[in-house]
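assembly run, all chains below
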Amino acid sequence: MKMTGAEALLKILEGYGVKHIFGYPGGAVLPLYDAILNNPNIEHILVRSEQAGAHAAAAYGKYIGQSGVCIGTSGPGATNLVTGIANAYMDSIPLLAITGQVDSSFIGRDAFQEADITGITMPIVKHNYLVKDPKKLVDIIYDAWHIANTGRKGPVLIDIPRNVFEATVDFEPRTDLVKIKGYKPTYEGHQSQIKKAVKMINSSFKPLLLVGGGVNFSKAEKEVVEFVEKYNIPMATTLMGIGTYDETKDLALGMIGMHGMPYANYAVHHCDLLIAVGTRFGDRATGSLSKFAKDAKIIHIDIDPAEIGKNVLIDLPIVGDAKSVLSEILLGIEIVERNEWLEKIIELKSRNRMLLHKTALNPQLIIQKLGDMARDDILIATDVGQHQMFAAQYFKFSQENSLYTSGGLGTMGFGLPAAEGVALAAGGKKQVFCITGDGSFQMNMAEMATIVEHNLPVKILLLNNSSLCLVKQLQHFQCDKRFSEVSFTGNPDFSAMARSYPNMTAYRIENEDEIESVLKEAMSHNGPSLIECIISDENLVYPIVPAKKGLAEMIGVEKW
Amino acid sequence: MKYTLSVLVENRPGVLTRIAGLFARRGYNIDSLTVGRTEDERYSRMTIVVDGGQDIVEQVAKQLHKLIDVIKVNDITEVPHVERELVFIQVKSDSNNRGEIMDLLKIFRGRVVDLSKNSMIVETTGDCGKIDAIINALSPYGIKEVVRTGKIGLIRGDGRKN
Ligand SMILES: Cc1ncc(C[n+]2csc(CCOP(=O)(O)OP(=O)(O)O)c2C)c(N)n1
Ligand SMILES: [Mg+2]
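ok done. output:
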């Protein structure tokens, strides 16, 4: 069938079941936007900046389990996507970014709005393409989708010159499997490695399962449940692994790391076997590498062979998909009596709490209450700062795939567009709370408009301390309390601003006794709202694993 | 230690940038890199000499493999293989020492490819050790410029089985 390149792009996306794309128009993508006007099956979400579009598409993709799609025009549209693409890359989120480019005959001549976006994004994409020949467009789109959505997932960018969008191409929907010579992810673990893992687990007295974001992407939650509940193996997670298993359960220890749960960090320190799945051992999770799980043998299961041995020395590597490998291991392991270890875990859990520095309205308490009220119903998106760590520590996630946060890149501004993307992906059926801070919120708060336009059930829980408090906290400990450029004095009246958007409600919480009633009120209707909590800028995230220290060397742990 | 990687890649624009970018980004040291088309014009073969420990080279190989345009990565350091490098050396010389230098070149099977009043350019091929040796041998006369291709390598006929 003959059609334009732009029409072929939309047809291929339709074939993959794409329902929404996030984007922003401009000169180089005019032909694409013209084609969008004629396409009844794909809804375009007009965001307020391309960066927000990329974050929204990434979170959308994480929710539905296949890549979201974002669009930017050439030049500034494309460069605005960069932060979103880098964020997706660091957290292995599938994402397809489409950028317009100047006419191929103008490339290299510094034409208006020309930017070498394939060059710029090379280190932050799984792969990218500049399509110079319209005849190659269709195959490139199929390949790009395949690469983004298989193996270790990640962002793929296709840069398409305006004349390629306009060119007539021959399009037949492909039904064959996409094959790429240099790309063959390994899904199944090596049998002999799996046997060894089974042996190691069966003979371990103190095993600990450590779950990373890869488990979310591989949908291996059921396998994790079986490890914990049938075989009594306790589990902890990285930040990205949150939402794989109900954190209210006894053997779920929550997040490890620099601001991890004290008992989770102690468990890593005390275990004799660490079964790490779908994690890249990021430095915020491990603390000092030489002290990390130093008495334990480590089994590392990951789909990306390059992650194995990159940061931590591994005793037994297994390259493969988390779900496939875990289910194979489950076939072999036995129920072993490990009462001493389980008692130790329960004891660690009951005797070590995070120190709480009491302020007039503790943000920790707000998040804890939110969890108690709606743990099983709502989804959470966060920004980056103290509020993010409090969310990870105090919400106690119970549902699969219920946390959307920026881990590897730590991108302020991720939260609101992410909440928007997830709310849309969930078809408006789930309320999405965006836990944010006044700093992060102001980076992408323009997305309130998009949220209002689509009447999405997004609740912005703004923990307003008029400061960049996580940085303030770093200065508190590392710069001898010399606070440099971390206070905001010109913040707007956020509630008034929210109310100025059509159909957006706003609330304020200033005292502890208002928390429940306001949250309840906000949840009682489905429309967008903002809940501003006026909190102190003296809160501290505890515990802290100081720089170069091991996980067991935390400060800010309350023992009893 | 120096490791030699033989890397089969798609013959496409941008591949060299991706590989060079990967080395720069991850802080790996490239000692030399050569690239050229193979028997099949869709692919190129690169010979990359990397400086570093065993663990670094393993990481390099794995990271290279992750690039979609990379089809195959072989660490041929320990595999029987042939290797060559080509060098041009411009060395100071005049009628007084020309004969002496020519004698020296015979030992290295070098050739004179350009001659002027005060200098000559010599050419030789060999493994990297031999190239270092000829440069050393000529340096007392005064070397003006050196250009080396970097090493190319290929696994020997029966090497793959080992
Ligand atoms: C885009 C970006 N710029 C800078 C930082 C560094 N940074 C990390 S946390 C933080 C403060 C966040 O402030 P806010 O959103 O108000 O959260 P709070 O810590 O006050 O809860 C900053 C500046 C970052 N992570 N991302
Ligand atoms: Mg703040």
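The interface with chain B takes residues 118-119, 122-123, 126-127, 130, 147, 180-183, 304-306, 309-310 of chain A (CB under 8 Å).

The pocket of magnesium ion (ligand 2) is lined by residues A 385, 437-439, 465, 467-469 (CB under 6 Å).

not gonna interpret more than that til we talk
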